[in-house]
Amino acid sequence: MCGIVGLFLKNEALKPQLGELLSAMLITMTDRGPDSAGIAIYGDEVSDMIKLTVQSASTDEDFPALEQSLHSLKGDNPKLSIRDTHAVIHANANQGDTIRAMLMSSHPNIRLMSYGQSIEIYKEVGLPKKVVERFNLTSASGSHGIGHTRMATESAVTTLGAHPFSTGSDQCLVHNGSLSNHNTLRRQLNREGITTQTENDSEVAAAYLTARMNEGDSLGEALTAGIADLDGFFTFVVGTRDGFGVLRDPIACKPAVMAENEDYVAFGSEYRALVGLPDIEQARVWEPEPAQVYFWSH
């Protein structure tokens, strides 16, 4: 039993409130998942720039060493912005692959949470309220975001095991449920060159969607293919650079509710996650249908 929230803003005037609204939704879902929590924020982009969000359990040692490595790169020096156990690397887009390779070879204790032009992911073990506070997520600005509160069933309670999972540029997924064929899919994806960092079944779902989109599928097409290829119970909320998608399995035993008005589209595992949103009384509220893909984009 986990809690999922998502908010896709249609009204740009609400962008400065994204973090505040999404954080309140997440905290409301605490009793569905007190083990760990995380949020993905899709913020403003800078032309020809990339952001890499990283995490370390030993920030006093790892982040200064990382900063030295970044300064040794040719061209403009990337900037490192530290937020508690996480940091965001701002770099030229053509430095992205070099930095990712450098993290793997020279900084094995630093974990890559996400990369892309827009996405930043912050996740840690602990109550959602504590996670929100330590990263000051209420101050975040952006166009859309998704969040997750976890009650662990399939793997250990760790930072890497927390959601959202990101396996591709500006892509991430949160999941409530359990997949039965994730080990088979993981081996298949590894053969295709898409690796995972954990034994979590939800990360495999994220990697599956990445693989489909790498082959040219839109997010909607990838989610549609997942109805047949992903066995088990699931409610997914997925983020991309410009979009937001929702899918429930054909049985749809995991709870889900959505709301849409002129200003936003919102998702919650329960309606109480949505009640604090502005003008919620003017929204169309419904339960997403089983095996039906819902998708919005800017």
Q: TL;DR?
A:
This protein is an alpha+beta fold and 298 residues long. The protein is built from seven helices and 16 strands. It has helices spanning 18-28, 59-71, 96-106, 128-134, 182-191, 201-214, 219-229, and strands spanning 3-9, 36-42, 49-55, 79-83, 86-92, 111-116, 119-125, 144-150, 165-168, 171-179, 232-239, 243-248, 257-260, 264-268, 284-286, 294-297.
What does the model show?
This protein has helices at 18-28, 59-71, 96-106, 128-134, 182-191, 201-214, 219-229; strands spanning 3-9, 36-42, 49-55, 79-83, 86-92, 111-116, 119-125, 144-150, 165-168, 171-179, 232-239, 243-248, 257-260, 264-268, 284-286, 294-297. With 298 residues, the chain is an alpha+beta fold. It has two domains: 3-44 and 140-297, Glutamine Phosphoribosylpyrophosphate, subunit 1, domain 1 (4-Layer Sandwich), CATH 3.60.20.10; 46-117, Alpha-Beta Plaits. A seven-stranded antiparallel beta sheet has the order 7-2-8-1-14-13-15, with helices on one face. Helix 6 (201-214) packs across helix 7. The longest helix has 14 residues, at 201-214. The radius of gyration is 18 Å and the shape is globular.
Compile the SSE list and pairings:
Elements: E1 3-9, H1 18-28, E2 36-42, E3 49-55, H2 59-71, E4 79-83, E5 86-92, H3 96-106, E6 111-116, E7 119-125, H4 128-134, E8 144-150, E9 165-168, E10 171-179, H5 182-191, H6 201-214, H7 219-229, E11 232-239, E12 243-248, E13 257-260, E14 264-268, E15 284-286, E16 294-297
Antiparallel strand pairs: 1-8, 1-14, 2-7, 2-8, 3-5, 3-6, 4-5, 9-10, 10-11, 11-12, 12-16, 13-14, 13-15
Helix pairs in contact: 5-6, 6-7
